[in-house]
Fold:
Amino acid sequence: MTHPTAGNRRRTAARRRPESGPPPALPPALRRPLLLLAVAAAAVAGLLAVRYAGESAAAGIDRWLRDRLIGQPPWAHRPAVLVDFVGEPIGAALSLAVLSGCCLLLRRPRLAMLAVMGPLLSGAATTALKAPIGRTINGDYLAFPSGHTAFATALGLVLALLVVSRWRPRPWAALTLALAGAGSGGVTMAWAQVYLNAHYPTDALGGCCAALVVVPTTAALIDRMAR
Structure:
């Protein structure tokens, strides 16, 4: 005769089984940390927007970093232009095609959707915010937040989510990978934008924050709709 608790154990195990179907766009180990990070990033972006609204010159940390990065060293101009190309229409289309294609090859359709929607929505968010904030550089070019930096940060974060989804590391390692992916993409593009005098450093920080808000939120919505 079956022990009375055996059925309970089987039902409990069944409830703990992962959901059937494609893996989520936002791995469970990262859902809470990245959504909390999105809230913090939104707060930072809001503070920067208020601080630099309507300005047209560099001051403080912006001036200090620009003086040390613009055109220095001269041999880095070509790499900076290549990095900048990733955020241009043709480069962006190629990047999205490659990343979403990798997701599909690895049977991650939700991540493939995020690989397209995350970077595009991040760029769209920065475009929508520029006019109301009104910060300019090089005359009348709207600068805050940086769309190129938002796009690159989103690409790096989605790539990190793909690695986490494929290899399933421990939670602390998964979060480290996610932050490293977003940070490497954002910092590299931020350097190129400041080097080429296309943005102030705080514009790049605002763009990075925009991606950290948009990508986790979009991933959570994709998973919710898929369920």
Remarks:
- The chain has nine helices and two strands.
